[in-house]
Amino acid sequence: MKIELTERFEIIFGDNYRRMLLHALRFVQNEDDAEDIVADVFCDLWKRIEEIDLDSGITTYLYRAVSTRALNHLRHKNVSALLIENLEAINERRMEFMAHENLEDIVYSKDIARGLKEAISELPEKCRQVFVLSYVNGLKSKEIADALDLSVRTVEAHIYKALRMLRSRLKYLICFILVLLCLT
Amino acid sequence: MSQISEDILIRFISNSYIDEDLKVVRAWIEESDENSRSLFEMEQIASLSTAIHDDRHAENRLREEIRRRIIRNEIQSRKQKRKSLFLRLSGAAAVFAAIFTVGYLAFRTPRQPMIYVAATDESISVVLPDSSVVFLNRNSQLAYPEHFADNHRRVELTGEGFFEVSHDRNRPFTVVGPHLSVEVLGTLFNFVSNDSACNSVSLLEGSVEVMTDNQAEGVVLEPGQKAIYSVDEGRLTVQDANVAIDAVWHDRLIPFENANMVQIVEILNQLYDVDIELDGSVDLSKTYSGLTVYYGNIDSTLTRLTHTLPIRFSDEGDKIVIRSK
Fold first, then answer.
1. What are the DSSP E strand ranges found in A51-90?
2. Would you state the pLDDT for residue B5?
3. Which residue does chain A place closest to B305, by CA atoms?
4. Crossing angle for the helix pair B33-52 and A152-169, nearest 10 degrees?
5. Looking at the complex, does the CB of residue B133 fall below 8 Å from at least one CB of chain A?
6. A166 and B43 in contact by Cβ < 8 A?
7. How far is A181 from B282, CA to CA, in rounded Å?
8. Which of A172, B153, B254, B276 could cysteine-pair with B173, CB 3.0–4.6 Å?
């Protein structure tokens, strides 16, 4: 029983930790704090693993746990109450949006990864280069700006443009229902 | 739809927003569902994009951190002598595999302190001082120095390990075993190195040179090749192999790449040492790509596959038969 839980915990961790780091960064804007928050959430999940229904909505649960902890983290810092209130309101909308998506199975699909890779490869050259360095390779906007001799603002504009183009290109993938797609 | 300054959205998506931006973004997404969808779909694409690239180093760093915290919790709860809590937390020992079944002793000699790590009941992962990662299979031991030398990195393996060696052209990485040694520049490979009759090295990415203990021959492997050393005959042979299968144990994921049902069944037979037969009703022309979780038993894995493939299965004595749904 315990062994099975252990395996499941490991799988849940592997499937979710990247998404959770990125999610935490939407609040705290600092990687060390984000890692700290995500580590806390997974520790807490382990402590409560026998009380939690792992079969339904574990990813949604984690998103909520990370949001709560990140907001609490900000409350203990010298951050304006108004900023926290706005972040919280935006996050409520984000959670509503996610509730409509089937988030659980995304990671099992190589086809989503392939569709995404193809769509990325079709982006305009500069846009693609910046986007890959940013999300795929995990560099910060400042690092990319220095490497490519661009301004940070230009780098961020490229990233935004890439996301906007990918979104319209990937409408069909955004349904997130593909698991193992039949290729024939 | 009212206009929002693109600059504000750019800053928001890049997490470089300023206080005033949030108020504008909030008002904008509360105005219509379309506005909020367009923003959050972009966020999801960003989040999926981060998953394309396997950042195992970051993953392991976080894993280590969580492991440390769980252990710290356990020590605290011991001090508090609260039995019920202690019992619950001691289950945490099982989480990161073998940390409690691991013999982890730092053993100091004046010259080069070595660290010995052993996995007994569960496989574990170890991050080396150069941030290379080694997954140790059950009943395996690894020894490595607390600090690597300036001109080489040398570790010793007994048992089975999966290596993700960080690239460093100035410091070759060598894994030494009882019969074979492997020299690496930066790569992914699986190494079975023990006293059994058959030792092997499977290369997934990069390049390695495999040397036998009699030093006479060194063989350079290409990705997708496996070097097998027969201890009795003292002979090293190289063959093309499904090397990904040799590495399944380390991340518990079974990869399929454009595989039809015959190939999928072959992989499962090999992994679980079972006898699966395909009924004539199964369509062999279709191919599939993806990952599936490597469960401890074949039934769980097949059950998972029936959710995504048009198949069903039944146990029939000493074999399992797969039919079309």
1. none
2. 82
3. A180
4. 100
5. no
6. no
7. 17
8. B153
Q: Is the pLDDT of residue B130 over 60?
A: yes
Mean of the per-residue pLDDT values for chain B?
Answer: 78
Write out the residue range of the structural domain in which residue B316 sits.
252-324
Residues B88 and B164 in one domain: no
Bridge partners (DSSP) of residue B22 are: none
pLDDT band at B323 (very low <50, low <70, confident <90, very high): very high
CB spacing of B73 vs A47 below 8 angstroms: yes
Amino acid in the structure at residue B177: G
Picking from A173-177, B66-70, B81-85, B312-316, which range would have the lowest pLDDT averaged per residue? B81-85
Contact between A123 and A160 under an 8 Å Cβ cutoff? The reply is no
Give A47→chain B minimum CA distance, Å. Answer: 7
Scan residues 150-209 of B and list those with Cβ closer than 8 Å to A. Answer: none
Q: What is the pLDDT of residues B135-162, one digit of tens each?
A: 888 888 899 988 888 888 999 998 899 9
- Can you give the pLDDT at residue B46? 83
Q: Is residue B197 part of a domain?
A: yes
Question: Judged by CB atoms within 8 Å, which residues 73-132 of A form the interface with B?
Answer: 80, 82-83, 86-87, 89-90, 93-94, 96-98, 101, 106-114, 116-117, 120, 131
Regarding beta strands B276-278 and B288-293, do their DSSP bridges make them parallel or antiparallel, or are they unpaired?
A: unpaired
The pLDDT value given to residue A111: 62
- Which pLDDT does position A122 carry in this prediction? 84
Continuous H helices in chain B? 6-13, 19-31, 33-52, 56-80, 83-90, 92-95, 243-246, 248-251, 261-272, 298-308
Q: Are A62 and A16 in contact (CB under 8 A)?
A: yes
The residues that bridge with B144 in the sheet, in sequence order, are: B115
Contact A113 B43 (CB under 8 A): no
Residue recorded with tokens 């600092």: A30
B182 and B229 co-located in one domain: yes
**Separation in Å, CA of B10 to nearest CA in chain A:** 6
Name the more confident of B290 and B221. B221
ipTM, interface predicted TM-score of the complex: 0.82
Same domain, B204 and B129: yes
- Residues B125 and B64 grouped into a single domain: no
